[in-house]
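Hi F.,

I've been meaning to write this up properly since the lab meeting, where we talked about keeping a consistent format for the predictions we share between groups. The idea is simple: the sequence comes first, exactly as it goes in, then the structure tokens exactly as they come out, then a line or two of notes. No screenshots and no reformatting. I'm using this chain as the first example so we have something concrete to point to.
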Amino acid sequence: MSTFPKVESDPGVQRQVLADHPDMMMVSFSFQKAAEGKLHSHPHVQSTYVKSGAFKFFLDGEEFEVGSGDSFVIPANAEHGCVCLAPGELIDCFTPRRDDFL
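Output, unedited:
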């Protein structure tokens, strides 16, 4: 069980660190329908697992939809973001750890 607080990262989006180590971090993002993860980039490699819901993702100019059980990797420094099509949760792993989330 995570001892980290839930934080609103964007309107309709809650973030909670689930586990962390200097080399890796696991984070839950819970989305309400139509909530957006704004376009951004970071130097961390990110893997995303769709625990529930449906999302439209934008990754370096490409668009694709994902749903429960899907997963993919976002390379370091790639511009990415999403729109929630059906309420759900994403589990993201970052390497190295996102110190800005602590």
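Notes:
The CA atoms of residues 41 and 66 lie 20 Å apart.
The chain has a mean pLDDT of 97.

If this format works for you, I'll send the rest the same way.

G.
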